[in-house]
Each structure stands twice: as structure tokens, then as C-alpha cells.
Amino acid sequence: MAQARRVIAPAPGSVRFETFAEEQTMHHPISSVRACWCGLAAAMMAAAGGALAQAPAFAIASPKAGATVTSPVSVVVTVAGVKLGKSTDGLSHLHLSVDGGPTKPVYKEGPVRFTLPPGKHTLHVELAGPTHQPLLPAQSVTFTVKK
Which residues pair with 11 in a beta bridge? Predict the structure, then answer.
């Protein structure tokens, strides 16, 4: 037969359990209880087929800042935490522009090519949500196209 227990709050950061029959005391740090609940929540989400949400993020992978490249310039932007696609489908997308020129929307991952004249250029990239509002601050990179 199991013995009855009661919970007493002794000191901050721990929980004290006393067994009535034996007067033995055990201390369990609250952090262990918290870790147990976090693990349980993650296991439940995995069992339900879900994944822990990742915050939106993006980075300009190519060209690198200060690089010298040839035209056409291959632009690669890595994206995490969002799915790229058409705004009409409720998905995020990228806004790319070179030297303050017109914005080119990009709806899928992979290289985008720009034909540019020789000289210094600045690429401006923004991760936008379905309503075209920026999800994060824009990023820029300056590079040189050689002759």
C-alpha cells in the first residue's frame, strides 16, 4: 500500500515532500520539476506531429560583403522559421533590390541572378510576411562586380 504524502513549501527553489508514516523528508529542486514539464510538453508536441516553432530568420549567403564577383551576380538568401511562397497563399517572401532600384519579390529558395554593370553595388534584402510587412529588419551587403 502506498504511503500518503503532503507538499510543504520550505525554501524558495525547492519543494519538500514528507511521508506521514516514516517522517522522512526528500527535497526536489524546482528546476527538475520545470525540466520534467518542458520535456513532457516537447514529447506531447512530437507525438502530435508538431514541432517546436522556430523564430523567423534570414541571412544573405551570397555575395559576401566586400566580395568581387562577375555578372550575372548569383544572390543566395537562406531562410529559417517561415515558408516562402505566394502572399495569396498566406506565405512569406523576400524583397530584393539592388542600388535602391525596383523591388523584386522572391517566392522560393534558391539563387536569384542579377545582371549588373561593373562597379560597386549594394543589395538590400527584406523578409516580408503575407501582407508585405517586414518580419525582421532588412539586411544589406555591398560588393563589387569586376569588368
Answer: none
d(CA 23, CA 17): 10
Q: Residue 103 above 50 pLDDT?
A: yes
Task: Map out the domains of the chain as residue ranges.
Answer: 5-47, 57-145
Q: Which residue has the cell 544572390?
A: 75
Contact by Cβ (8 Å): 136, 127: yes
Q: What is the pTM of this model?
A: 0.64
Alpha helices, H only, 2-73: 30-47
Q: Cα torsion at 61, 65, 71, 76 (round to 10°)?
A: 10
Cα gap 121→100, rounded to integer Å = 10
pLDDT, tens only, 33-50: 344 444 444 444 444 444
How far apart are the C-alpha atoms of 75 and 36, rounded to whole Å? 44
CATH number for the domain whose boundaries are 57-145: 2.60.40.10
> How do beta strands 14-19 and 104-106 pair?
unpaired
DSSP count for the chain of H helices, then E strands? 1, 11
